[in-house]
Amino acid sequence: MLRTKFLDYIHEQALFEADDKILLTVSGGIDSVVMSELFVKSNFKVAIAHCNFKLRGEESELDAVFVRVLAEKYALPYFEKSFDTEKYASQKKITIQEAARALRYQWFETLIKRQNFRYFATAHHFDDQIETFFINLYRGTGVKGLRGIQPKAGNCVRPLLFATRDEITAYARKQNLQFREDSSNRSDKYLRNRIRHTIIPAMESVKKDFRTGFQKTFELLTKTEIFINEEISRLRKKIILTDGELIKLPISELKNRSVTAFQLYEILKPYGFGMDAIMKIPETLDKTGKFFLSETHQLNIDRDFLIISPLGTENNETFYINVETKRIEKPVTMGFEKVKSPGAIKIIQDNHVAQLDFDKLEFPLILRKWKKGDVFVPLGMTGRKKVSDFFSDEKFALYKKQNTWLLTSGKNIVWIVGHRIDNRFKIVKNTKTIYKITLK
User: Fold this and answer.
1) What is the pLDDT of residues 322-365, one digit of tens each?
2) Are 83 and 89 in contact (CB under 8 A)?
3) Which residues are within 8 A (CB) of 121 and not within 5 positions of it... i.e. 6 or more apart?
């Protein structure tokens, strides 16, 4: 019986505890209606949520009415939200399917936190798993993509993943359950539907119980992924160096082939780098300064290391330091003090400390990011130098440029924070008051 298998699967996969509150995500289709029936008959604490994506006109509105009535039938709390899915897809430059997925998952995550649910449940089943396998195979993927949908991921549980489409249909008929038909499921416009309507029937015609073989394959792929993750974790601990937010991978490990292209892919994948970019890295190991970008990180080829760093966000904010300011915490932590100049001046040799001639400063000082065209007179020089040229000479990687602050006085740069002061503001033998700034 499906309900027995349903309860066994929840227990085997440790999806949730008996007293957890679960939000059921219900479209009104057969899968989510069967899921709702199983949860209610099993006496779990549940509520129903429905997304109206406004994509099928009156059909979408009737879906919402149906799910609302279903919640009333079960006497369950009901949540509903409408989305302008097409507008969102256009703004984000993604497909309608990607937009709908992003919108619903964002809403579910918000809803379970706001309403104190432990998890939200979706009605994905085993045939969805097989279809996802072929979609990912078609697009190109690794082991994780081939093993497909997981029973539990973050706050999402999928308690029907054990059941086939035929089992769900048979249960709905036996229980005389009413459900909505989504007309878009009949269209071969979408890749998933083409796989459902052509590849799956073709496989069934060759071997009726082909799903049994897939089940074994998914189990092996899951074990394979666990093994790979453990090996990559060991490799990371062995060769990766961390420096704050920076991740450093010794280039020597790549040159002597102790790290393979596959291992490099697994190491860099969490930072958003795809296989195409990663396959080019071994060819550029001798090109210091070469870099690769993902949506979230930069990988820089340095002399001895691959350096991975978060991309700095554009920051146009300015921060003011008044003459009375003793300390700031944002955007960086800095301390400020005025010191009467002693007879013999002692220069502190530390890039984290700036000693400036107080009387040459114009308050308030301003802390800001560098801009194209910025110039200063580096300590020890008399001529002006572009800040961008200073960065190049000092071999600043992109991430370092993006995260460097400038301290200015009037129209002049006083200090490239943490690196070099301007020669015009240095302390000299007749300096009366030293303005000491310490970068914490």
Assistant:
1) 999 999 998 899 999 999 877 667 788 899 999 999 999 999 99
2) no
3) 22, 23, 24, 25, 35, 39, 156, 157, 158, 159
DSSP string, 43-65: T-EEEEEEEE---STHHHHHHHH
Distance CA 402, CA 289 (A): 15
- The domain segmentation of the chain, as residue ranges, is 2-214, 240-310, 319-439
Strands 45-52, 78-82: pairing kind: parallel
CATH architecture of 2-214: 3-Layer(aba) Sandwich (3.40)
Other Cβ atoms within 10 Å of 125 Cβ, number:
24
319-439: CATH number:
3.50.40.10
> For residues 343 and 271, what is the distance between their CA atoms, to the nearest angstrom?
54
Cis amide bond preceding 364, omega within 30: yes
CA angle 98, 102, 106 (to 5 degrees): 175
Mark 302-322 as b/e (b = at least 16 C-beta within 10 Å). Answer: eeebbbbbebeeeeeeebebe
Lowest mean pLDDT among 145-154, 172-181, 261-270, 313-322: 313-322
- C-beta of residue 405 within 8 angstroms of C-beta of residue 352: no
Tell me how far apart the alpha carbons of residues 420 and 440 are, in angstroms, rounded to a whole number.
Answer: 16
Q: How long is the chain?
A: 440
pLDDT in tens, 121-130: 999 999 999 9
Contact between 49 and 79 under an 8 Å Cβ cutoff? The reply is yes
C-alpha distances out from residue 147 to 28, 135, 389, 425, Å: 27, 12, 50, 62
Residue-level pLDDT at 396? 85
- pLDDT reading at 313 higher than 60: no
Tokens linked to 402: 């993006």
